[in-house]
Design a protein that fits this description.
Shape: globular
Number of strands: 10
InterPro entries: LysR_HTH_N, LysR_subst-bd, WH-like_DNA-bd_sf, WH_DNA-bd_sf
Keywords: DNA-binding, Transcription, Transcription regulation
Structural class: alpha/beta
Helix content: 40-55%
CATH topology of the largest domain: D-Maltodextrin-Binding Protein, domain 2
Family: Belongs to the LysR transcriptional regulatory family.
Protein name: LysR family transcriptional regulator
Largest sheet: 6 strands, mixed
Distance between the termini: 52 Å
Pfam families: HTH_1, LysR_substrate
Number of helices: 11
Length: about 300
């Protein structure tokens, strides 16, 4: 009988690439991970890893086992969900990961609804960047999480996760009042201006380099024929809008963050979209706690958007 915990370590090695990364994800020592994988090789009766110096790669047998192990892990998630479905009432922790804007706008109503309908749930929220959500789900630090991407920077789906759509947002160009483009001064409607083209010489408030928001801004601006010139870097949209209101630059703002802009900010809608999805481990869709969260946050999103 193969040990499920060791199978999970092998799958994580295939995903993360190094024993050190697997050890960090599980708060083990690299030596402990190596020992567990060696025991798995003895259980299988053939080599699963090829070691060259400090490098480790999967053998053909290792790759075959990973493919079947992912099926086993999905089946275990489905089993857990089925057992939870026959229990009386929802109890225990539900660990939720979400990006700051969603924590501020969508999660409060979601948590109130879940708390009222399922008082036995222990709701635990972690605020984190969407790029960190898949790893947290794989490592079982989260049960559900919110992912997002932009139509100009699509993210490849993770085959080990299932997702459902939550929100498709307009992205706005945030400008200080009086800054071009100003359709009224142009003598036309909103479509008369080239909102991005008129900011090619402006200072920009951009997210931290390497984040999805920063990459999306680069793509949008380069498609308009220029590279944005950053003056400030900020990842919290409240801070971004405050800097725009102070005349410190222009920025791109998704709809969730644009609900209540401060005085001195003008928002121009763009064709770019930001897309948010609810994610959980494959096989967990039928878990009652997962289903309850999906229903609650979808309702909270509809209410927030006034649908």
């Amino acid at each position: 009988m193969l040990d499920v915990r060791r199978l999970r370590l092998l799958c994580d090695l295939a995903r993360l690439g190094t024993i050190a990364a697997v050890a960090q994800a599980h708060t083990y020592t690299p030596s402990a991970v190596s020992q567990q994988l060696s025991r798995l090789e003895r259980e299988v009766g053939m080599p699963l890893l090829e070691r060259t110096g400090r490098r480790v790669t999967l053998t053909t047998a290792g790759r075959v086992l990973v493919g079947h192990a992912e099926t086993v892990l999905t089946a275990l998630e489905q089993t857990t969900a089925a057992l939870a479905a026959v229990a009386t009432g929802l109890t225990g922790p539900l660990r939720i990961g979400a990006f700051p804007t969603a924590v501020r706008t969508l999660l409060p109503a979601t948590l109130v609804t879940l708390g009222q309908q399922h008082p036995g749930l222990e709701l635990r929220v972690t605020e984190l960047d969407p790029v960190a959500v898949p790893a947290a789900l794989h490592e079982r630090r989260l049960d559900v999480g919110l992912l997002n991407d932009y139509d100009v920077v699509p993210v490849e789906p993770d085959p080990e996760l299932e997702t459902v759509p939550l929100l498709d947002e307009t992205v706005f160009l945030a400008l200080p009042d009086g800054a071009p483009p100003d359709p009224a001064q142009r003598g036309g409607g909103p479509g008369a201006a080239d909102p991005l083209g008129d900011t090619r010489d402006a200072a920009w408030v951009m997210a931290t380099p390497g984040t999805l928001c920063h990459t999306a801004t680069l793509h949008v601006c380069r498609a308009a024929g220029f590279t944005p010139r950053p003056r400030h870097h900020a990842d919290d949209f409240v801070t971004v809008l405050a800097l725009v209101a102070a005349g410190q630059g222009v920025s791109l703002i998704p709809q969730l963050a644009a609900a209540h802009p401060p005085a001195g900010v003008r928002l121009v809608p763009l064709t770019t979209r930001r897309r948010t999805r609810i994610a959980y481990r494959r096989g967990a869709a039928e878990h009652p706690a997962t289903a309850a969260f999906v229903t609650a946050i979808q309702a909270a999103t509809s209410t927030f958007l006034g649908r």
